[in-house]
Each structure stands twice: as structure tokens, then as C-alpha cells.
Specification:
Elements (H helix, E strand, L loop, with lengths): L11 H14 L15
Length: 40
């Protein structure tokens, strides 16, 4: 069973771990492959 909940800022490292390889591949989203986790 999957449980959905709202995103919490503490989730950021885990979410980045999932998204980083997708962004780096440069085949799906229009983000620079050099994108970083930093929000600054």
C-alpha cells in the first residue's frame, strides 16, 4: 500500500536522490545537467 503525504523540507535530500540522475541525463526535463540541489 502506498501512503501519500505532503512534502516536508526534510524530504529534500531523498527527493534530490531520485531527481538528480533524471536531470543529469538531460532527456526528460528542460533543466541544465549542471543543476544542483541548492535552492539559492
Amino acid at each position: 500500500m502506498t501512503i501519500l503525504r505532503l512534502f516536508h523540507p526534510d524530504d529534500s535530500p531523498s527527493v534530490w536522490q531520485i531527481l538528480e540522475p533524471v536531470f543529469r541525463a538531460g532527456e526528460t526535463y528542460p533543466y541544465s545537467p549542471n543543476i544542483t540541489q541548492s535552492l539559492e
